């Protein structure tokens, strides 16, 4: 099993969710996060004063899937989150050793 953590632009969330649903990815966790990468934030003008916005709003998706879905899932996220502009995001993949569904005690693939 793998865990995919995808950091994307907030306005792309619905596109990504819908695209994942089309390939039968049934569950995910979504968090509102802030951060920066190569973008390094930007300068804004507020009430005549200029200030630097260091952390930009992003959305983080966490998805645990079977290994056989990994490549397709990554392709779908990349396609749906793509704008071609800086700040499109990143995808991180890690191994998951064990999953337990609390309600039923199912484990691993049965639990996801």
How is this structure best described in words?
The protein has 112 residues and is an alpha+beta fold. It has 2 helices and 6 strands, in the order E-H-E-E-E-E-H-E. The chain has helices at residues 13-22, 70-81, and strands at 2-8, 29-35, 42-46, 49-53, 56-65, 89-95. The chain has a 4-stranded antiparallel β-sheet, covered by helices on one side. It has a two-stranded antiparallel sheet with strand order 3-4. Helix 1 runs antiparallel to helix 2. It is elongated and about 60 Å long. It starts with a strand and ends in a 17-residue tail after the last strand. The model has no long low-confidence stretch (mean pLDDT 89).
Question: What's this model, at a glance?
Answer:
This protein is 20% helix and 37% strand. By secondary structure, it is an alpha+beta fold.
